[in-house]
Structures are given as structure tokens and as C-alpha cells.
Please model this.
Amino acid sequence: MKSGRGIAAGVFGSVIAATISMGPKPAAADQGFQQATPDQIKKHRLGCEKGDMDACGDYAVDLGWGADESKRKGAAKLAERACNAGRVWSCQNLALIYDQGRGVPADDQRAAELYLKACNAGHPPGCTNLAAMYDDGEGIALDDAKAIEFYTRACDGGDAKGCKNVGFMYDEGEGTAVDDVKAATLYLRACDLGNGGGCTNLGVMLENGEGLARDGARAASLYERACGMKHWLGCSNFAIVLEQGKLVTKDQARANAIYQEACDHDEPKSCTNLGLNYDNGQGVATDDARAVQLYTRGCDLGDLKGCVNLGAMYDEGEGVAVDDLKAIALYTKACDGNNVKGCANLGLMYDNGEGVAVDDVRAAGLYTKACDGGDLVGCANLGVMYDHGEGVAVDDTKAVALFTRACDGGRQRSCKNLGLMLEKGEGAAKNLKRAAVLFQQACDGNEALACERLGRLYEKGTGVKRNKAKATTLLKTACDGGVKTACGPEPKAPKPKR
Model:
């Protein structure tokens, strides 16, 4: 997963510039801003009273980003004094004050004017923040071309976030044609300037071969580098690499430790992935209650996979008491956010009447959304509904197409269902040889009914050469697997099941 645009670079002082990592809008100073000590604040105040404009600018930061909100009203006047005296960094801070409404009413137009002033005076973060406003259409008209212009100016001036942001625009084709090579170059510059998001995004491009030759080893190195910069999405990607053991030596314990640290810093996918490991006992002892906690955190932070997994815990009563209503709410949240697994699971709740009245039409609609989004369970279940005429009109041709898609994707039950359709010539021409192949595949995948049907084919010598010994073995396997019809003479052929 790539890092999106981190929009603004932050608060600056007269001596040391403390950069803050921003969200869609410049964020609060407590996200990495180093508060001055009481002695430093006193020094700034006294210096400002004596006419030291650097001290005034610093004192504006002390007030504007201090813990005491009642003192923030004086920050704007102090920052403006320093800005008008030529302290460009204080113009940037004054823009942030108006952007965030720190002690003054928020004023996007005034913030944009001040960012432009800082940018034109050679302060690259002002260019980045102005670009962000054009990028999001905050206070000024949305203008991707202007956003690219000012991000580029910021990057040329050495602002890492500007480099990453303009790289993202070339990566996504926003305001310009997609240019993977240019995006990669900009991500690398951002990374070399210390922006972890640039390292992460370049790593994703190299891992996936997006406009560049695949280079998994370098991708892993970039994720690790990003993680060292405390870019938590980079940490999550590096943990995945460690967990998979394909690009680097597998190290589940280290992966889990990284997931934990990233989750502690609100990286949602890390919470979900660590929850999955507690759920399945990967590198840790199985702990359903801990998995529930982590899925909850991941979901609350916006990871829809976490919502689906948490829904499944409530659905199955693992780590929590069974609660169909909570499961439905979580699946709905995920499905509304276009997580297709959430749609498939929600469809099953309506299909089976779990926590809601049975609603085949609603179930079919949800399965359709899931299948259209690539979820094979949704395709498989929708196929059964077309075969049975539940929630939709009977359509064997559609059922065959859906079973084929799910079977090709590895759903053995759908291979069995497709075999049943071909055995009877429903939705497609009768094809016993193909049915036998599908039954064998599904039987090998522990679908007992497929073993029974294949046994019957061997018993009669249809689609395969007659072989009583194989038939007997297959029928016994099916009978032992709970298929009662395999335990005696052949009954009427069954219908496909979910």
C-alpha cells in the first residue's frame, strides 16, 4: 500500500525548524512539535519586548501551539510582527495560525495569501502548503496544475514533502499524465531528503513493477528505511515482507513487533494484521480476545478489513459473545466502504436470516456487489441463487458462468457445483468427462459430495472408464464425510449447494 499525500510542513522557529507531519490539512503542533521549556518561553517573551523579531516569532509559536488555549489569541499579532519584519518562517507560521484557527477565526483565503508570501520569499514549506490548498480546493479553487507547480517549487527548494506530494500526483495522473518514471524519481528525492512516505511509495513501485523493473530486495530495503524514519505505513509494509519471507528472510517475531509498534502509532492495517496473527496463532499464542481488541482498533482507525474480521468474530462468537446485530453493523460498514468481503458476509446474513429476516433479493444484490468486486465467495453464492431461483430468476447459464469463475479461483465447492451442472447438462452442454475432472478436483479439496458423484461415474462407467474399486473407495470417502447418499444405492442427483 502507498502513502497518500502528506499535505503540509509545519511550525518553524528562529533557530531550529521543527517540522510536523501533516494530514489532509496542517495538523496540530503536538504531532511532533517540540514545546519550548518555561525558561525558553520567558527568554522569547523578554526578547520580543525588547524588539527582537526572531524572539517575537518564537514567542508566537510558544503561544499558538502551547497547551494553554486561552493564550493563543496573541499568537497571530506576534507572528505578523515578525513576518512583516522579514522573518519568512514566521509568515509560514502565521499562515498555519489562520489555516487552523489558532486563537483567530479560521481564514483559508488569508492562509493562502501568507503561504504564497512565504513561498515567494524562498520558504519551500509555504509552497507545499499552498499547493495542498490547490490540491484539496480549500479556500481557493481546486487546481491540480497549480498544485503541481507549487509542489514542484517546494521540491526544487528541498522540501521533502513537496517532492513526495508531486510524485504522488504523477503516480496517480492527477493534473498530469501518469508518469511512473518521474514519480519514482520524485519519491527517491523525497526519501533521500528524509521523507518516509517517499521511501514507502518508491518501495511499492519497485515491489509491484510499476513503471520500473521489479526489485523486491530494494523494495524491502526502502520499507525498512521508511520504518526507521517512523513512517508507520512503511513499517506495516516491511512487517508484511518479513511475515511473507519472500523478499527477505522470514521473521514472524520481528514482524509482529513492528506491527505492534505501528499499531500503537495508529497505523490501522498493522492493528488488523497483528489481530489476524493472534487469531491464527502466527508467531504468538492464539488469543481470540486480543484479536478482537486489535480488529476493533484497526476498524476504528478506518481499516475495513479489520471491520470484516471483527464482524466475523461476533458472527462466530470467537473472543466475544455471539452478536449477529454487531456483525451485521460491521459488515455493513465494510460493504458501504466497498470492501467486497464485507458485502459477501453481509449477503450471507440476509441469505440465512442471521440477525435479520431472510431477504433473498437483498442477499443476491450483496453477492453481486461482492462478485463484481472480485470476491469469489460472492460469485459462488450468487451462482447458487441463480441455480435455485432465490432472489433472482432461475438462470442456469449465469450459474455456470459464476461457478466457473469461482472454481477457476480455487473455490472447490464451486468446482463441485459446476460438475453437477455439467453432469446434468444444465446451463451448458452435458459433459461427463469435464464433470469427472471437476469432481476429482473438488474431492481432492475435501468436498465429500464431489467424491460421491465421481464414485457414481466410476460405478457406471460414464465420463470415465468403469472401475468398481475406485467407485467403492470414493463412495466410502463420501460416506465417511457425511454424505448419506453415498452409503447405499444411488438416489436422484443433487442440486448445487452453497
In short: Residues 224 and 420 are 50 Å apart (CA to CA).
